[in-house]
């Protein structure tokens, strides 16, 4: 018997601590785990070679270690996915210069380029604190992957259906998100309380029940964090949980690549329903379709 998908509601994932307040099990022909309101916030190792390094140094840029290139799935600028062999090396200055180059060429909106560059420095500073001797290379690889995904989506925007299933091939967006957040988690000092509840959940799901997880989630990284904390004990739950995602995480260019790697029920929140009057009816129709998809999952 094929086990049901897991579902989570809102713009992220529900914290593991929510497991202690689970609703009673609900019998169902088609099991699903539903976690409440959530936002959702591998990969390509650099193929971007730039000139004008003097310009970078003139603005105070420095050179970091290069990241060895390996074969990976890449997205062409036309939106096609292809597997390529070893690529040229990429370093920090080349990545930052390429972001600016794509902005200047009109391929990357100025606000997206600014946010991407700011994210790079924030992510770099956070990852370098984790004590891993390979932290710099890991950070640069992950940011190169994100830049590649953002640029691809800006040029060929992905539209999320009411019920979105994680994109796992030819590019694995799920593992991309996992590996991006992984160096930010202190696994040595992190744990999941009441882990036995997750074992019970998985058993009930395979028996055909539904599980609903309620949470007041705060960050777009929550789905990846929950999946990372459960990947050794409950990998099936990590990969199959379905989250309810608000509109920002399926429209923001920096969030979309992470959201594409999660199973989502996409909704427009009441809070922002009237932000653009001309879109109210479209949002209502979309929410109706999302509710129907959710009902099918819980049937």
Automatic annotation (TrEMBL):
Pathway(s): Lipid metabolism; Phospholipid metabolism; CDP-diacylglycerol biosynthesis; CDP-diacylglycerol from sn-glycerol 3-phosphate: step 1/3
Main location: plastid
Protein name: glycerol-3-phosphate 1-O-acyltransferase
Subcellular location: Plastid, Chloroplast stroma
Domain Glycerol-3-phosphate O-acyltransferase alpha-helical bundle N-terminal stretches: 91-158
Family, per entry: Belongs to the GPAT/DAPAT family.
EC number: 2.3.1.15
Phospholipid/glycerol acyltransferase domain residues: 202-274
GO biological process: CDP-diacylglycerol biosynthetic process
Keyword set, alphabetical order: Acyltransferase, Chloroplast, Lipid biosynthesis, Lipid metabolism, Phospholipid biosynthesis, Phospholipid metabolism, Plastid, Transferase, Transit peptide
Species per Swiss-Prot/TrEMBL record: Zea mays
A cellular component term, taken from the record's GO annotations: chloroplast stroma
Pfam families noted in UniProt: Acyltransferase, GPAT_N
Designated gene of the protein: LOC103637735
InterPro entries: G3P_O-acylTrfase_chlp, G3P_O-acylTrfase_N, GPAT_N_sf, Plipid/glycerol_acylTrfase
Sample GO molecular function, one term: glycerol-3-phosphate O-acyltransferase activity
Coiled coil: none
